[in-house]
Structure formats: structure tokens, C-alpha cells
Request: fold
Amino acid sequence: MRDASPAKVYALHIGVILALFALNFVLPDYHQGLFARIMALAVFAMGYNLLFGYGGLLSLGHAMFFSAGLYGAGLTVYHLGWGVPEAFLAGIACGALLALVIGLLALRTSGVAFMIVTMMFAQVFYLLILYFAAWTGGDQGLVIQQASRVVSIGGASFDLTDPTVRYMSALALFSVVLLITLAIVRSRFGRVLVAIRENEERTRMLGYDTTANKLIAVVASGATCAASGAAYALLFGYVGSNFASVQYSILPLLWVLLGGAATVLGPLVGTLFMYYVTDITSGFTSAYLLIVGIALILLVLFAPKGILGTIRQRWLGWLP
Amino acid sequence: MHFGPHLLLAALEGLVTSAVLALTALGLSLVFGVMRVVNVAHGEFFMLGAVLAWAISTAIAGHPAVGFVAALVIAPLLVGLVALIAERLVLRRLNYNPEGTIVATIGMLYIIQQLALTFYGPEARPVEPPFSYRILLPWFGYSGYKLSVVAASVILLVLTWLVLTRTKIGLIMRATQYDSETAQAFGIPVERVYAGVFAVGAMLAAIAAVLIVPISQAHYLMGQDPLLLSFIVVIIGGLGSLRGTVVAAILIGLSDGIISVFFSPTLAKIIATLVVAMVLVFRPQGLFGTTAR
Reply:
């Protein structure tokens, strides 16, 4: 990674945030809703990227962290009548706690075994949601009523079902996570993660506690994905077991690979691109999964670095 | 029914599951053992076998046995061909890189599943069993076809074992598994061995599917459970060990059959998956495997 002046890097990312802010006033209703969804899910992809892109740990079970946030926020609102901010924090806490437990267990393995173990824990989580259908609504899911999705701060109240409030909330979460990711990547911890990805043995020899660093990465990644899930539940008012299925462990991998693993903006680019490809092609065919499958194969064959990864390699060496 | 006969019935059902599972898992285990490739699309080869069996047996008129035998021969061959093409077009170009192949086989999973949905449809369809003889036990009658599935599976497993341990092909495969570079240096066409193993692995899954489809119907999502169970079996048995795979298949099949008769099937799956994940975490070489290479 060639070093760039921090000013240039921050200008680019703040520019992206400002552009997204401006889009709110330009986009037609349908695309405004789609963008809110994309930004919320890009947070999921960014959380995944932290572990996979920078830490080099390929997990096939991140749906459990996303749905821990989803259910952590959704169920506290639905059953306990909690307010939106408390529920959001509860979602993140659930995800972080789960990630800590899973990290302690799964990090005893590496490589292929790590992928399979994470996939299995996610499957257990998914089956538990179905098993406790009385609480979780099983595969039918639960709808969170509009009345419980209103935040009142000071004297003002914000209704999360309002398109503009929803867009701005998603953007706020996205911006915070984007800037945190940027800070992490440029920090000492971020560099140690990359070192572990490139050569774990050598990093350990240099005196770094690689296991502890990986555990921190798992927890940070899990908490970020949970934040995305919690936001998704609160913004779109629905929680369902579908979000815990294997498919939702694969999607962030696809988004990150497409946008470019280990690039800060890659997850956003990948999510945006995939959503619009699906949106446009769904006019011709309902075979959404076919496109996902073909995209995955073409990516690993011809562009393993993804869109931004290729751009960084060819033209913009300073891209973080 | 009393407890004893009930348990016997559960054990018989479990044995049929074990028989089919052993074949499917053996395919996964061969591919992993020789090629070091985790084939996530393995369950879809299973599903493809079942769907093709339905297509072939309905296309052929006459006695159900004729259609079934035709399906038993043609469906695995077609699935093997699909696997061969996938291996040539994708896996070989990835140089069998473990992480790349996992992502690529996930892609294959989605493609095969979606194509099955498009051309076969969302319905579950039955295939008529080749014969419908019932064995009468003192407490209940039991399908003779189900027991013949167990017999067929045992024969196939013994055949595979003989091929692996007693023939030149088996020797070449084991040499490739042990050290592919040295094997290559001794003139073994490693790429051709890989292609063959990938096709044979898929064919074993397809045969298992054709055998099971008269009992449980063909459906485009039917590949999910066998995939997960095969993973469980291969992990418990020790990756790449034939004997371990068979023992683990019997263990998992029987316990799955018995637990799901007396408890909820979801709970059975939760416990089995959790136990296996823990085995992988604390004993990565499996319960029966030797040290991982």
C-alpha cells in the first residue's frame, strides 16, 4: 500500500458521504428506498470485509451476527416494548457477545475448518430461531409496528417509516461505520491484521499476539454486522429467519468480493452494483440466484480483486 | 406400538438414512481427500441425480422397474458429465486453490439450484419404486425396497473400497492424495485423476439420490440436508478416511433416525450440528481419523 496524504484519503470518503447526502434530494421515491436498504446492508458488508478482507479469515456464517442484531433489536421492541435507541444498542450487544463466543471457539481452527465451523454455528443459530418460533415468529417472521419505530429526541420525534428519515438514518450509520473502518485500517491494529493475513507465523514471530488480534477482529466484525441487522429491523420493520439462512452468509462475501476485498469503499460499491444488477435483470428473469452464482464464479476466475481492488492495482495505488 | 418395535422401526429408518448418507458422504470425502477441495455444490449433484431420475423414469413407459434401472444408469452418468465440465471450466483454472474453489462451488450450487427450479419447477415429485414387496415382521410390515437400498449401498461401498485398495486406479488415486507433486513427477496425470475423482464423487451422490427418490420425493431444494449431513459425517469420520466415513454415517444415520422419532427433528439437527462443530473445534482430525496432513 503506497502511502497517501491523509487529506486526500479523507476528502475522498467525506466526498462519498456528501454525495450520498445529496442523492436523497435527487433520487425518485423508489430509488431512495433502495439506496436506504443498500446503505444499511453495505454496513453488513463492511463488517464482513473487516474480517475477510483485512484479517484474511473467510467466514461462511456471518448471517448469525447480522440476525443477532436483527433479532436483538426486533425482539426487544416487539416483546419488551423497548425504545428504538435501546433496542439498537441491544442488537449490537447481542452481536458482539455472540461474536466473542464464536470467536473463542472458531479461532482454534483455521483455513477450511474455520469456514465449515462458522457455517455450522450459523446453521445452529438458524435452527434455534426456527425452534423457538413461539418467540421469533419462525419462518413467518414478525412485523414491527410503525408506532414502535418512532424516536423522540428532546422535543422532536422522528418516524423511521418516513422515507427521508429512513434514508438519513441509514446514511448516518453508514457514515459512522465508514469512518470507523477507515480509522481502523489506518491504525496500528489494522496493519497488524493485514500482517496476519499475509503471514501469520511471521507476525507471531515479531511478537504480536495474533490470536488476540484475530479475536478483536471477529468481535468488531460481528458487532458491525449486528449494527447493520439492528438498523435493518428498525428501519424496515421486519425480522425473519430468512435473514439467518446460509444465503445471507454468502451475500456479504459476494458483495465484498465484487467491490474489492480490503478496500474501504469496496463493500458499498459491491452492494450497490449487485442490488442494481438484480433490480435491472429482475425485469427479464426471476432467476436471481442464477445471477449470484454466475457472478461468484466469474469473480473468482477473472477478477479475484474485485472492482476497487483492480482500480487500486492499475491506477490509484493510494486507495485505502 | 410398544417401545421395542418402535425402536426397531426407528433403527431401520435410521439404517436406510445411513446407507444413503454413506454413499453421499463418500463422494464428498473422496473429493476432499484427493483434491483438497471442499465441494459445497455436492448436495446439488445429489439433487440433480434425483431430478434426472424423475425425468428419466417418467419418460420411459412400461414397468416401473425398467424406468428405475434406466435412471440408475443414466442419471449418475449425466451428473458425472456435469461435474466433469464444471471441473474443467472452473476448478482447474483456479488451480484447486481451497478458498477460491469454495466460492466457486457456492456459485455452482446457486446455478444448479436455480436451473432445477426453472426447468423442473417447485413441486416435489415421486418416482415409483421398482418393486413394492413388503416384508412382514411380527409387529409391522416393512418396505422391502428400503432394505434393498441398504444392500445396494453396502455393495457399492465394498466396490469402492476394493477399487481404492486393490487396483492400479486406486493406487494412482492414493498416490495423488498422498503427495500430488511427487505423483506428477512419477508420470501420474494428476489433472486427469482430479477430473476423474470429481466426477466419481458427484456420481456417488447421484446414485444415492436415485436410490432414495422412490422413498422421498425429488425436489429442487433437497440437496441442502444431505450436504450438511455429509459434512458432519466426513468431519466426524476424519477427512479423507473411508472407514471413518462409513462408521460415522451409520452413527449419524441411526442417531438421526432414533432422535427424530422420539424428539423434534429440528432439535435433533441442532444437537447434531453443534456436536460436530465442537468436534471440529476440539478434535479437528475427527473421532476416527489419524493426524491431519
About this structure: The mean pLDDT of chain A is 89. Chain A touches chain B through 37 residues (CB under 8 Å). The radius of gyration of chain A is 19 Å.
